[in-house]
Amino acid sequence: MEEETPDQVVARASADVLRVVLADDHARMRGRIREALESGGCTVSAEAATAQEAVELAEEHRPDVVLLDIHMPGNGIWAAREIAGRLPGTPVVMLTQSAEEDDLFDSLRAGAAGYLLKDMDPRELPDALRGVLAGDGAMSPRMLTRVMDEFRGPTKRRFGRRSPAAARLSPREWEIMHLLSAGRSTDEVARELFVSPTTVRVHVSAVLKKLRVKDRESALRLLRGE
To answer: Are residues 189 and 180 in contact, defined by beta-carbon separation less than 8 angstroms?
Structure first.
């Protein structure tokens, strides 16, 4: 199938019902989002519960927009990066509970065209997605403030993938350390990634060995570049 240009995507979406691939690992949340989208003149072409499913369904259905949660199995930020690379004419918008700055900036670096929080009025969601197709950004006011503060204030060190320390980690190790850096406990990380707490501890131990540090806090400081 020949790839559509961004202008063709916008033109088609203006003439037809907005088609969305929706990815969230909570079925009830997907139901609420679907209801809001359909009430606003959109149609949900497919639903995914994991990042891998989101990528596969986006390629299969070629929607106008892909709406992604972040903290679902496989990592929504990874899915955003994959979709942005494979379907450059299809914008990706994150819809998440996470107001963490790292999630915000990692999503934007991955190619997301918007970052919305789930506490928004769901009736505003369809217009926000149409705005993205028209070339506007979609961002919750609280997160927009974070972006503005980032450019106004002094440069802050972030937990990122590009540091020499992070380059030594496997994707799963990085994901675990990233969640721990956001303040999650070992048990919370385990639940989020659908693994056991023991598995999380094993990965953390491997990270400490790779980075040649004695404790978790030292590893996090090194990964932040402190």
So the answer is: yes
